[in-house]
Design brief:
It is built from 7 helices and 7 strands. The chain starts with a helix and ends in a 20-residue tail after the last strand. With 261 residues, the protein is an alpha+beta fold.
């Protein structure tokens, strides 16, 4: 194979890796990506001084009203590298059409990296030990959404208040595990809020209106455990968070539930 032909193949495989996506992966909705030139990074935690009510009135020729800075906390961490490779023996290359074999390897590696990232993010988010008591709620008995008399709308409203009391922002993102979604879309309270002129089917768009949440995503991703059984990555729960939608204009002053660096 000539050098030019090999370069064309490599370029094609690179486009496959960049364009490959799985609609079931949702971690990026909770963990927006930011870049860092260094492996060691500093994370700054700012205080609530921007929310204080200050005396701003000034008499003529009087001194300016000066804020006393409260400072901030700095957390330092070191990033780790993740990579994955797929072996292709030269004899396999001789027996197979090279582009198809390499294409398969590229897809497997890309899916493997993305699935590992999804699992890491989901495990972190769904661990109750990572949240203070006032920022988690474990439903039981009649409060479970499987009970027809339960109050999903009230539970979500209380959860939104809990988030805003912590960060002064109303949550705008909700990730629902597939099992929780199957229960919610059949719940009589939510179906009762739908106009009689519409089919009694709770959709994502209707749920956005009912809960007043801008982004609602269903976590459907699956992985194979050590025994080869398929398991849902996102379990029977709901994650409520604030994630800014700022695109390239995001700065270190923008709060977010989490970031992916």
């Amino acid at each position: 194979m000539g050098r030019l032909e090999e370069l064309r193949i490599n370029a094609y495989l690179s486009e496959v890796a960049r364009g490959y996506s799985n609609n079931a992966l949702v971690a990026q909705h909770l963990f927006p990506e930011i870049t860092s030139e260094k492996e060691k990074i500093d994370i700054f935690e700012f205080n609530k001084e921007a929310f204080n009510i200050y005396d701003t009135e000034r008499a003529i020729r009087a001194n300016s009203n000066v804020i006393s800075p409260q400072g901030f906390k700095k957390h330092t961490t070191t990033l780790t590298e993740h990579d994955l490779s797929y072996p292709i023996d030269y004899r396999e290359e001789q027996e197979a059409e090279k582009v198809k074999l390499q294409l398969h390897a590229t897809n497997v590696v890309t899916e493997g990296l993305k699935l590992k990232l999804e699992k890491q993010c989901a495990d972190l988010v769904q661990n109750p030990d990572n949240y203070p008591t006032e920022n988690k709620l474990i439903l039981s008995g009649l409060s479970c959404f499987t009970d027809a008399a339960s109050d999903p709308q009230g539970v979500i409203d209380d959860a939104k208040d809990a988030v805003s009391q912590k960060i002064a922002q109303d949550p705008n993102t909700m990730v629902i595990g597939q099992a929780a979604w199957k229960t919610l879309k059949k719940h009589p309270q939510l179906k009762g809020l739908i106009s009689d002129n519409l089919n009694k089917l709770v959709t994502i768009n209707l749920l956005k209106e009912i809960f007043e949440i801008e982004n609602i995503i269903i976590g459907k991703s699956i992985f194979a455990d050590k025994n080869g059984n398929f398991v849902r990555i996102w379990q029977d729960n709901i994650v409520l968070a604030y994630v800014p939608n700022l695109g390239s204009s995001r700065t270190q002053y923008d709060p977010s539930f989490a970031y992916m660096v």
